[in-house]
Amino acid sequence: MFGAGNSSHPKRNYKLIDDFTEQLKILPIFNAINFYAKEKVKLRKKETMISDFDLLIGATAIANELIMVTENVKEFNRITGVKIENWAIR
Description:
Blueprint: H1 2-5, H2 10-21, H3 33-45, H4 52-63, E1 67-69, H5 73-76, E2 83-85
Helix pairs in contact: 3-4
């Protein structure tokens, strides 16, 4: 939304975002919060932290029994139990 608002055509770009997001299922994060917190403690103690947003994304995937599709395998593999697919393998 920031990028759309900051662009030279915000109205058009907001519409593109709206059209795209209407096709998505938005997952709640509430069922991932406990796992997120425990995993953040573990990662901090091991000094292998990842960004809060990435950790929340991974925790949400786990809580909803989903497979994460990412090229950032190295970082997300630090999350206990996350299932990952890298569709960008060349």
